[in-house]
Amino acid sequence: MTRKPPCAFVTALGAIWLGLAPGMVRGAEPEVSLAEDGASFTIRAAGVLEMTAGYGAEIERDGRRVELHSGLAVAGAKMAEATEETPFGQAAIREVTVPGDNCELLFRLGRIPGLPGAALQTGVRNTGDRPLRLVRTMAMEMPGGRLTRSRVMLKTGMASATNQPLGEIRDNLSANQEPLRIAGEMFPQGIGCHAPSEMVFPLDGKFARFQCLAGLDDAGSGSVTFEVHADGEKLFDSGLVLRGQPARVIDVDVSGKRELRLVITDGGDGTQFDWADWVDAGLRTASAAQDGQAGRWGLALDGEPADWIAGPMIGQSEPSVARPVERTFDPVTVTEAGGLYHPDGRGLFFGAVGKPVAYLTGRLGSDGPNRAMLEIESAMDSVEVAPGETRWGQQAVVLLESPQAAQERWISWVAQSHGARPPRDAFSGWLSWYSLGPQV
Fold first, then answer.
1. Which of 82, 402, 404, 434 has most Cβ atoms within 10 angstroms of its Cβ?
2. How far is CA 173 from CA 243, 251, 373, 380, in A?
3. How many Å apart are CA 220 and CA 242, to the nearest integer?
4. Phi/psi of residue 316, each to 5°?
5. Residues 180-213: pLDDT tens digits?
């Protein structure tokens, strides 16, 4: 059995609920639909966001791990309808069964009358004659998440050619051998250069996007420009960059390109103290299996990505920092509760509810210009699933409303579904210790 510390909370039913507060987009409710083949679901909230996602699971059988993805194996999927009681009324459920090799991937999509939103639930049924182990369930999965996890960070040793007359190009250090720092923000990884500078990296058609932040190091005092070229085509030009300006965001398509060239010029006023940094510079890989979904799966935000912030909504056991979506090339990973919000209060909150069974983990980040990605999964710790047995992931709530309203609804849901006592401070979660202490 998966075990949890006192502050953790999730469920064996693996459901995620999405709702829209009446005042956030007045008169509008999210449109929720299931694809005809059952491979994905779409949620549209006018003036907020639109997202299409799949679902999946990872199992282990005979010592071999296998990932089950709804978008990769939907032939012969079966549809059914059911109902389910929830703390907020009866939900009408659309069920999908995706056949696999001695197992089935299960998904449920439900609506609750009077509560704008939908329910998501992912599980696995063992149809074979030998036990299998359930490693994790993915209630919300987007190709951008898998691509981001395979991001390759650039290092100077990967360059096929470099040209920098002044000083040495350095990994993770500025031209003056200090930590990389732009506009007061320190970056642990990147490449420090002295303009003029040029680096060439082989791509060989293996990558989908080049993502990076670029700026004049705080130790410098000149002016520079940053350019990104691929196969002779200029993909990005920063214009003049001065000391103290925020890092420029670079996110360009390099699909099918053979060579990447990164150029820094002196800005036209000489080279003195032109210390410039490429930070968080990485290449996202591409695969044929993922490319077919990348165009139709993802999360489109209303407004500029620079205005949307991704981060945790409760305290985390490990450091986790909220960041603008457009700068979140490596996803923000949060446990139990997180959010994606605009300064005006529009956005999305998710948090675990229901019977404690496994951890809820969310990943939020950039998925290219004007797009974001959100993945939500349950770590099931390779729990055994016997022949004929069905195992579900955990339950969570995802709310499209202001952070304060969402947290109030979240704690109310927990109190009703679990019977736990909520603390006075909504931001500290619910007190499962009182009801679960003897079992932990």
1. 402
2. 17, 22, 30, 40
3. 9
4. -115, 150
5. 999 988 999 999 999 999 999 999 998 988 999 9
Same domain, 113 and 163: no
Encode 157-180: b = buried (16+ Cβ within 10 Å), e = exposed.
eebeeeebeebebbebbbbeeeeb
CA distance 412 to 410: 5
Question: 12: helix, coil or strand?
Answer: coil
Query: H/E element holding 407?
Result: helix 403-418
pTM, rounded to two decimals: 0.77
| 164 contacts 196 by C-beta, under 8 angstroms | yes
375-393 confidence digits (pLDDT tens): 999 999 889 999 999 999 9
Burial class (CB in 10 A: 0-12, 13-18, 19+), 78: exposed
Distance of CA 232 to the CA centre of its chain: 32
Q: Hey, what are 78's tokens?
A: 């079966």
The residues with which 377 forms a beta bridge, in sequence order, are 138, 361
Return the half-sphere exposure (C-beta side, CA atoms, 13 A cut-off) of residue 412. Answer: 10
On whether residue 39 sits in a domain, the answer given is yes
Query: How does DSSP classify residue 345?
Result: S
- CATH number of the structural domain spanning residue 302: 2.70.98
CATH number for the domain that contains residue 225? 2.60.120.1060
Q: For residue 421, what are the domain limits?
A: 15-142+297-439
Distances (CA, A) of 421 to 60, 408, 412, 424: 37, 13, 10, 10
Strands (E), 71-130: 78-86, 89-99, 103-112, 115-126
Do 51 and 298 form a contact (C-beta atoms < 8 A)?
yes
